[in-house]
Amino acid sequence: MSVTLMIPDVPDELARRLRARAAGNRRTLQAELLDIVETAVRAESRRTLQDLVTQGQRLGLSGSPAESAGLIRDARDRDDRR
Would the CA dihedral through 18, 19, 20, 26 be positive or negative? Predict the structure, then answer.
């Protein structure tokens, strides 16, 4: 059994961006929205704090808060130069 979902009062700019995204993926707006919802629900699985710490360590993000701030500043500075 399927159900029909409605989202009233979608801002024009958001609707425009969703239509553009759908076109870029060669989908109808409805197919694009269904894909977004399915992806969000799949990704919703609960993570423990330990899962997040382990993932951060794997990505090399196990430094101190000062190191994190430095990484953020570096990324911001790179973006400013573009």
Answer: positive
